[in-house]
Structure formats: C-alpha cells, structure tokens
Amino acid sequence: MNFLRRRLSDSSFVANLPNGYMTDLQRPDSSTSSPASPAMERRHPQPLAASFSSPGSSLFSSLSSAMKQTSQAPSGLMEPPGPSTPVVQRPRILLVIDDAHTDWAKYFHGKKVNGEIEIRVEQAEFSELNLAAYVTGGCMVDMQVMRNGTKVVRSFKPDFILVRQHAYSMALGEDYRSLVIGLQYGGLPAINSLYSVYNFCSKPWVFSQLIKIFHSLGPEKFPLVEQTFFPNHKPMLTAPHFPVVVKLGHAHAGMGKIKVENQHDYQDVTSMVAMAKTYATTEAFIDSKYDIRIQKIGSNYKAYMRTSISGNWKANTGSAMLEQVAMTERYRLWVDSCSEMFGGLDICAVKAVHSKDGRDYIIEVMDSSMPLIGEHVEEDKQLMADLVISKMSQLLMPGGTVPSPLRPWAPQTKPAKSPGQAQLGPPLGQPQPRPPTQGGPRPAQSPQPPRSGSPSQQRLSPQGQQPLSPQSGSPQQRSPGSPQLSRASGGSSPNQAPKSSAPLTSQPRPPVQGRSASQQGEEAKKPASPHPHLNKSQSLTNSLSTSDTSQRGTPSEDEAKAETIRNLRKSFASLFSD
C-alpha cells in the first residue's frame, strides 16, 4: 500500500493512468483509502493533494475539452450553412436574322429570361450565316458580319431565333432555305416557327392554305380573290377575262407582278414565263379604292388603310397615304384564321384590297418577315421583343424542353364494364344466339342460298330462338313435304344433298316446349361436328333421331317424322347407288 501511495505521488505515473483508475482512486470508499491507516494518509498530505490537483485537473480538463469538441462536432453538421454565392447561369443567346438597319440589341437591353438569365443578342442576315447541325450536339452557327468597317467573326450555339428576313426570293436570287433546314435540323425554337418559315418560301403554297380557309368559312366571311395556278407556261393559253394580274414565281415588294390588258400582251407575258422556267398565277385585276393590312403580333392587333396618291395600280409602289383604322371583328376573323396555318403564326399580317364597288378581296398573307409600317413601328418592334422573351421564358427556362409536335402514342384501354354489363350473353339455360342465317359467314359450312318466306327459315331465324310461352301453342310440326327436308330428298344430284344437310348438323335447334331449362342449356353448349361433310347421311339421321327422341308428341307427329326418315333414306340410297 505504501508503494502504491508513493507511486500516486509521482505526477508522471498519475498522468499515465487510465480514466477509470483515476476515478476509482478519487472515490471516498475506494479500496486504496483504507480506514486502518489514517496516520499514513496524514503523514503525506501535500504530495497526494498535489498529485490530484495539478496533474489530475489538467487530465480532467483535457478530457472534458476533448469531450466537448466531440459533442460539438456532429451538432455543427446540423447547423444551417452560411450564405452561399449564387450560381451565375450562362446568358441565353438570341439570334436575330435581319438587316443592319434595325439594332435589335437595344430592344432587349436589360431584359432577362424569367427575370434571372441574361440575353445576348447576335444579329446577322441570312447571307452572313453558315452553320453545322448535329443530332446530339445541336446547331453551331458561324457568323461573319461587318461592323463599322471591321469584319467580325463569331461561332456560337443559339438558344432562340427571331426571323425577320425572307429566306427565299427569286427576284433577288436569294435562296437560304438550306439554312432554314439546318436550323430546323438542330431543333432550335424560333418566331415564327422554322416549319412555317420554310412553308412561306412559296406563295402559291401559302395561297393553298387560304383556299382551305375560304372553303371552311365561306365567301361572305373570308372573301378570297379568284386565282389560277400554272406550273409552267404551257397551259397559259388565254385568260377568262381582262385585265388580269400575272405573278411570276416567288417574289416580294411588288416584284414579278404584271398587269395584262388584252390577249396579245398575255401571250408576251407567257413567253416571259417560259424564259423564267417557273410557275405563275393569274388573278382578276381589281380596281381598288385602297388597300387594307391587318397585322397581329402576339395578342396585339392593328389595321391600316393605304391609299395610292401617285395613281399606280400597285398601292405599295410610289406615293401612298397610310392611316390606321378601327379593328373590326371581320378583320380580326381574317387574321386569326390565317394565324392558325402551319402549326401557328405568332406574327402575321393579311393584305386585302377594297374595290370601288365596296367589296373586299383577300390577296395575301405574310409571316414574321413582314415589313413594319405606320407610326407605331417602334412599338411593334418592342412587342416583338416582348413576345420573344415570353417564348424564351416558356421554352428555355432551367430544366425546360422544347415541346415536340409529335404526340406520344398512347395505347387504347378498354372501358371498364359496368355492373349492368357484366353478363353479355344470355342467362344460363337459355339458347345461345347463332350467327345470322342470311348474308352472314358460316364457319366450316358450304354457302346456302337464302330463301325468303319458307316456314323452316322463319323457324330457324334468330327471332324463332326465343322460348315459346305457354300461350303460343304447340311448336311447329315438320311435315313430310316441308321445304327444309324436301331439298334433301327431292334432289338427284350428288352435289345438292351435302349442301342441304350441312346446316342441319351444325346449327342449334330452337328450344322445344316441355323441356327443362337445364337440358336446353346443355344441348346448346354441345359443340357442332368439326367435320360436317365426312358422313352426312349418318349425321343427318342422328340429328333427326335426336329430334325424334326429344320432341315426343302425338302419334300423328311420330308417323310424319317416320315418313320423313324413310323418304330421306330412299334419297340417300338413290344417291349412293349412282
């Protein structure tokens, strides 16, 4: 014990003791502090106190601090994280296809997609673009433009497209339909849709859509001008009336249009069509009082009236007076109907002519490449910019996808049966309905010519399968000269007897009075003979014998049936003897 106390007085020894041992030594009732040696405890009070105060306290303080750190470590994981830096998303690239006269960047300045994502505007004409489209990589556009005398070359992947330029014009020799195909190949959303932009590359093709609307609404609601299409110059022999307007190919801004006064001039124009090697259209010339233009940008409508001052028959050529007119329901119907073609047009305009006799004629529809006119050009451009931002917010939001025009195939599910339709067939014990006897297909049977008016067919008709009521009297009796049996007995040709015997072996018999419902149900469930043509005489005899045993009636009935069997046996004997 003295040795232990001396060791406890050593601070290095105490510091190396485990925690449990030190705890036991500090207890008042520990075995080391025996009451038998109080003098020895009083003899060395200082070293023992020092050993418990200085090394022990440092040990306990280090242990307690370690426990605190251990206890605080998992609680620190549950604490809410501090303010993190916001993730900056890349700006969305908008490609505006338009000439350099309009700076579209200023209309999108400060605008954001969903109020969060910046918009970067790239503007170029069709002639300044090139691209490469991939199945999984989207569309990479190369742009070479001149900005203030400096050639700027960029390559980027656009996220949205605003088309404000014609993709095809025969008059200017511009054909950029391949670029439209490439943009569509890359799956890029656009205003208007690239599908509609490609379809608007042929005016007769667009006019065919106007013809559909004309037939749908009628001439009163949609007055379309009469027009004739010629794929080439060969069918252009003459016009039904003069003057007429001849339009060659696909052009814009009044180009390729000729007014023809008589037949001689018409022949000259026909030769020009032959040289152009293109299609042409002719329409009656309308002596107009003014032109009408109804435009739609998103949900904004405007109507304008343009009157020629220079006297030119083309109102868009020379001097003209333009004024905005009231938007009527008639005009709204025109532009709304046209905006539904080619899957929907977000921006479109309808051109019409008001004749001097007070009638209107619709002559053309334009898409997003239409020129802006009037005093509200800036407002219309801002409307287009807002429409583009709205579409980008819908289609290009984080995690959003461009909706596909193809609808997924959905398998058709059968409707659940209602409680009243659970049992479709007749109740148990009732005869099962058979196929119609006249005109209907019969499995494993030879065709039988229908005979109307015979008692046997009326007896075997579907109406005759209903169970007879007690008030209906006895069932019909078969006489020896009944038509159904006389066809088998009266024919001497071997080809007629099998045809008459087949229906008797495969068709179920009508219910007979005096039999129970269970017997009738079991008889109806018996399958027909799988080979009705193998042993026709035996099957016919068995059928008649079964009917003899089942239809027990008066002695006169038995005699008649026996006579019928004898006649049939004679007929079959004569057949087999031949």
Automatic annotation (TrEMBL):
<dbReference type="Pfam" id="PF02750">
    <property type="entry name" value="Synapsin_C"/>
</dbReference>
<feature type="compositionally biased region" description="Low complexity">
    <location>
        <begin position="30"/>
        <end position="39"/>
    </location>
</feature>
<dbReference type="InterPro" id="IPR019735">
    <property type="entry name" value="Synapsin_CS"/>
</dbReference>
<keyword id="KW-0968">Cytoplasmic vesicle</keyword>
<feature type="compositionally biased region" description="Low complexity">
    <location>
        <begin position="535"/>
        <end position="551"/>
    </location>
</feature>
<feature type="compositionally biased region" description="Polar residues">
    <location>
        <begin position="489"/>
        <end position="507"/>
    </location>
</feature>
<dbReference type="InterPro" id="IPR020898">
    <property type="entry name" value="Synapsin_ATP-bd_dom"/>
</dbReference>
<dbReference type="InterPro" id="IPR019736">
    <property type="entry name" value="Synapsin_P_site"/>
</dbReference>
<dbReference type="InterPro" id="IPR013815">
    <property type="entry name" value="ATP_grasp_subdomain_1"/>
</dbReference>
<feature type="domain" description="Synapsin pre-ATP-grasp">
    <location>
        <begin position="89"/>
        <end position="190"/>
    </location>
</feature>
<dbReference type="GO" id="GO:0005524">
    <property type="term" value="F:ATP binding"/>
</dbReference>
<dbReference type="InterPro" id="IPR016185">
    <property type="entry name" value="PreATP-grasp_dom_sf"/>
</dbReference>
<feature type="region of interest" description="Disordered">
    <location>
        <begin position="18"/>
        <end position="65"/>
    </location>
</feature>
<dbReference type="GO" id="GO:0007269">
    <property type="term" value="P:neurotransmitter secretion"/>
</dbReference>
<dbReference type="GO" id="GO:0030672">
    <property type="term" value="C:synaptic vesicle membrane"/>
</dbReference>
<feature type="compositionally biased region" description="Pro residues">
    <location>
        <begin position="428"/>
        <end position="452"/>
    </location>
</feature>
<feature type="compositionally biased region" description="Low complexity">
    <location>
        <begin position="47"/>
        <end position="65"/>
    </location>
</feature>
<dbReference type="Pfam" id="PF02078">
    <property type="entry name" value="Synapsin"/>
</dbReference>
<feature type="region of interest" description="Disordered">
    <location>
        <begin position="399"/>
        <end position="565"/>
    </location>
</feature>
<dbReference type="InterPro" id="IPR001359">
    <property type="entry name" value="Synapsin"/>
</dbReference>
<keyword id="KW-0770">Synapse</keyword>
<comment type="similarity">
    <text>Belongs to the synapsin family.</text>
</comment>
<dbReference type="InterPro" id="IPR020897">
    <property type="entry name" value="Synapsin_pre-ATP-grasp_dom"/>
</dbReference>
<dbReference type="Pfam" id="PF10581">
    <property type="entry name" value="Synapsin_N"/>
</dbReference>
<keyword id="KW-0597">Phosphoprotein</keyword>
<protein>
    <submittedName>
        <fullName>Synapsin-3 isoform X2</fullName>
    </submittedName>
</protein>
<feature type="domain" description="Synapsin ATP-binding">
    <location>
        <begin position="192"/>
        <end position="394"/>
    </location>
</feature>
<feature type="compositionally biased region" description="Low complexity">
    <location>
        <begin position="453"/>
        <end position="487"/>
    </location>
</feature>
